[in-house]
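ping. complex inputs:
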Amino acid sequence: MGYARFIVGKTVSYVLALFGAVSILYVGIYPTMQKVIEASANEAASEFQRNLVKGHSNLTLGQIQAAVATFKAAYLSAFGFNQPFPVKFALQMGNLFRFNFGSAFFLQAPNGSKQVIALIVAYLPNTILLFTTGTLLVVAAGAIVGLLSARSAGGKLDRSIPMIAVITSSVPTWWIGFVLIAYFAYTLNILPSGGISAVPPPPGIIERFGDLLYHMTLPLLSFFLVNVGGFAYVIRSLAVSTMGEDFVTTARARGMSENRVLFKHVLRTASPSIATQSILAVAGSFGGAITTEVVFRWPGLGLLTYTAITENDLPVIVGSTFILTVILFLGLYAGEMAYGLLDPRIKTGD
Amino acid sequence: MASKSSGRSYLRELMKSRSGVIGLGLLIILLAISAYVVVALPQSEAYKWENPAAWQGNPVSAPPFWVNYFGVDAPSTVDLPLTGWTTSVSGGIYTYTAASSFVWSHAVTPSDFEVVPVFNGTAYEISIAWTKPDGTTIDIIKSSPVSTANYDLTTPSIQQSIIPYIQSQTGVYMNSVTSRQQLEALFDKGGPHLLNNSVEQGTYGITVQLIAGAPQAISSASKVSLVGDSYGYMGTDTVGRPIDLGVLAGLPWALEIGIISSLGAVMAGVLWGGLAGFFGGWRDRLMQWGTLVILALPALPFLIALSYSISLTLLTEALIIAALSWPFYAIIARSVTLSIRSQTYIEADRAMGISSARSFLTHILPRLTPVTIAYTALGVSGGIILGQTLAFLGIQPGNVITWGGILNDALTFDASVHGWWWWVLFPGIMIVVASVPFVLVGFALDRIVAPRVSAK
Amino acid sequence: MTPLLEVRGLKIYFASPRGDVKAAEDVDFHLDKGEIVGLAGESGSGKTTLALGIMRLIYRPGRIAGGEVRFEGTDILALPEKDYREKYRWSKMAMVFQGSMNGFTPVFTVGAQIQEVLRMHGREDNDVAVRKLLEMVDLDQSIASRYPHELSGGQKQRAFIAMALALNPELLVADEPTTALDVITQANIMNLLKRLRKEMGVSILLITHDLALLSEAVDRLYIMYAGRMVEEGPSESLFGKPKHPYTQGLLASTPTLQTKQIRGIPGFMPDLANQLEMCSFSSRCPFVKDICRTERPGLRKADGGEQVACWLY
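pong. complex structure:
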């Protein structure tokens, strides 16, 4: 019963937090949003006018203008303009949560749609593909290295981890990407300098898959190099502090080999924290996606956002920022749930 | 125990750890250079950076001068000063003449050829007699108006002067010539294959003549410039801006953003987390929830979106970064506070009737100070990188030189493709170099602080 | 008859910036089969370190710097780690830790952990086996499916004793088994230990600072001070007529219902990193003589079947 209470309590808390965060986001981008809505109203009004003129050729100019003005006013009202703030807030926040971001100013999705949500849906999967894979690699390698170095606490491996973590986490991913591209793509010519696939894409599933991996190599390498050291350090710290607990001494006393103590008891005890860190790593990686995708011209949400920045395509920026907030939120929530799932002290209602 | 937390004893312990010493040393060097930059490079440098005209005369996209030591032939710019002008007057026409010569021992030509007369009025004509080592002379003429300016190989009348020479050698009349072809013409061995020949090494002569209708005062600052192929310690970009200058100028701002944002974030976070841990109960839960709300905001996207609503200055950018980063420190401070709280003298205080505020200030806050300092150092690194990342995306206060901004240009002008490695390497290395000392010091401090905090 | 456990000249040092801290120095003691032997001393005297040393659980920066630990005649310190771990640790000699400690791994059920111990050593690991062990310590079978944090202090300690007995060891080292438990639970655990000795024939080394606890449980006990044994003897004679001034001080400081004023022992334990050639207790001893400050006394026979390390005898 305690577990159900835990889940419900945490979920409510998190949903409220999402609402709070998006409210802050709303306040921050308020002027931008109003501009976006106004532009969208203008566009809708012009379309209305075109249709009006097409369908009813017998109206006077005055009648047309009046009709358009009424339409535009109603449209703006529906989006909260000229309304008291609470109403405006409710309407505009509601639209955000329904992923109703309007149309982009300039950009277009591959299928031709100008709806911002269509753009996001078209490009988000590429970001998920790249960054989830990258984080999985970082988590796997980092966890193994971290655990092994905790086992040999004070040994050579263990002493070099902090140093490596220090230097690599001071390197921006996008810059390392830059350097790797310059070397592997332009000097050695063995890896592509960017993009997600060759142009034109090769025929056949196997070739396409191979081409995809070929294009993912450098971005994954950059991401991996920068993040693995830090993650290994975090896991190492977690493992070391777990190993300092009483039950580790008793586990050894019970006749367990070091391997069993570490990889069964310590690992399992630290697993809630490790799982949370891993999920946070995935969720957090999306935030940095923008710069990495720019450098590698990877067609994902990040590159979309960057292009929107350079083109001043405000609706896309608003939509993309909201989606990234939701993704981070889902990651935080999943991390919390994972912790509760893996730690029996919570499951049995402590 | 309390006496041990004095600043001096922490400093002493810091000096004992190798990474702490290295970090501290690098830090002092960074701050010293930064102070020098602030004092020696005036604000006008930043404006100059944005103005391409200020950099005329520098070779563009040139590697650093020291590549010459590694077997790359990249001549530096050679300026031939024109002094000793002789005057001759005849029938209202004033003719000024100066001559110079130089030895060219490179196997490559310069990257550009500039004539820079410095005088106050206007003249009808400036002509240059260019003598090659083999004795041939080329006349290069620019007709009026001639005034103080940099005349280079893109000037049409100069191009027109070189075309006949080319024709005389190769027999081919070219309608237009590129700068490269002009340089080959000026420097290659003569003959029918003039433009494909190798560079002729030897003594070259230049005689410059200025013809005006009124007396002129010609400054000895006049010169002919053989713009080189290498420049400075870190090369130049496509506009001729020296990267070493940009890197240096970017240091104070980078450090400022990092330090201010970190200080703000850590102080706010530690206070928030410390109070949450101290209060406990519903207040703690509420503050934890507040931490979650801010934590849920993805830093980079939010900062980007925000930049459209407000204009960025150093202070506003640092404060916003701080406002998004404090949750991390709040979480740490709260758990530290909880472990402090588990020791009973807080209860004793309450039993004695000492107010909560006093209890917090005397017991909790001093014990949070070491953690605060350690994490402030670590946080600077994050602030520096975030600031540069934003600059890389084009989001920065105006009139500020940033490494991220320089790298943004490098990306725009495809520096990787062209192999202009110096443009990409040095600004990026600086980001690392600026961050690493703070992380070293922070780590060393953290190791000193951590065992004390969890003293069982 | 060969003692079950015989320790000779054991030295356990911890490396520190000030030099080696001698947590145990020249320790001799033995335990015969079927005995309950006590080891008493204040905090920091080295008793827990000694217990860990016997079980070869001393890790960096500590090390066993010398001496022998003979179990049934074999010097277990000389064995390779793998041999010791497979043949002796937990199967021949098991340990019960302080009552306040988290002896169990928090993420597995108590039953699963007992099963693990059985399985690791090739014994029958089914539910019946676990139930029998729990019964032995007066615990219900439902405990097996609980997590450690769901149990009370007393239940946890019993369950741990069950796990310690799982492989039917000959020796049980009990280090402060009742510390931080309430008096009723304390009494229960002590009765349990006594019963186990009777029913299972397990010999027990009972380590504690609580003299009252020892007085009614042990046949024989050692007193440890500053890493060395200072007195040893049968329960009656040692408690009845303590010989070493430290023992006397310890007993005097234990309050009874008649005590009007609690007396402590003035002074502090000497620095274990800096041991001089003198009696470690001399700075606090009410009977100190000149020789105490210049020469260190060893354990020597005295009356009542005891040994004392003191120049008074």
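Chain A has a mean pLDDT of 87.
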